[in-house]
Amino acid sequence: MKFKTNTSPFFGSNSNVSKVMLQVLLALIPGTLVMIYLYGWGVLINIVLAVIFAIVLEALALIIRKRPVLPFLYDLSAIVTAWLLALALPPLIPWWILLVGIFFAIIIAKHLYGGLGYNPFNPAMIGFAVLIVSFPFELSQWIQNGQLGSTLPSLMESLNMVFNSAATPNWDAITMATPLDEVKTGLRAGTAYAETAQQKQFSLTSWIYISSAFAIGGVWLLYKKIIHWQIPVSMIGTLAIFSSGMYIYSPETFASPLLHVFGGATILGAFFIATDPVSASTTPIGKLIYGASIGFFIYIIRVWGNYPDSIAFAVLIMNMAVPLIDYYTQPRVYGHKSSFASSKETEDKKS
After folding, report:
1. pLDDT tens, position by position, 129-169
2. Are the C-beta atoms of 115 and 139 separated by less than 8 Å?
3. Residue ranges per structural domain of the chain
4. Which residues contact 139 (CB under 8 A, 6 or more apart)?
């Protein structure tokens, strides 16, 4: 008599995955609403298009793989991936660039590895990394937010810009760099951080509002025990410690910790991206190492790398290290030695 056996990883029923993903989507709402208020319809258009593209590509991949479509669509994982990628991209980005990012996130990073539970890399960050490397100019064109007194495009104007970018005669007149990009450009040009921060177009306050709203959602996920505290705390804490130390050492040539923690996607990354249950570390100590390492790489890449924000690259680097981290940080099972101790004892016997 044959018994049906399944291979790891084990996720439980689809309904459980759906509930987790639904909680994540609900936690994203406060930050999303603040972004829509500050940056207009483009944010909402990004999300709607990304979700549509993700559902279509997810269904297509499942059909090709001869898997049931509806159960996997109902787990909401594709929608979460699309939503996160959409939030990371500038509003009013051309629709086809968004499609390219979703394609790499859903097809390449997820289904080519076997689907949900088998992907070693965070799908949304794979999509973003491909886009930032391939289209660096387009991904730097953030629309001027309403807090700076700019008139945001209407819904029809926004749709026209997304589907016909040639309809916008002068992008420079309505776009601006993010605070991280402004500071990085200024420091490389020899402008002191304080001088850049005093410029009118420096919009750190807007990003503080956005980050605070995402933090509210993240704390709610902690309260609901959807995520654990180790990764966000160690990631934000490490980034704050390094940036504070360098800022104290040379405040003219290094940005303040306030900018590094609130000026980019740090809070979004700490609570919603780095905590991905599939690609992140799973052991208690491993989560601390994983989160702290992401915070370290974020600072290194931001300060000395070529990209102003580096959440995607830092997360992907540490995704590669997760198997090693989990192997050496497994909690000791009662009555058994840890894998690290066992391997060390074996090496000692051989020597």
Report:
1. 999 999 988 888 787 765 555 678 888 888 988 888 665 54
2. no
3. 14-176
4. 89, 90, 93, 131, 132
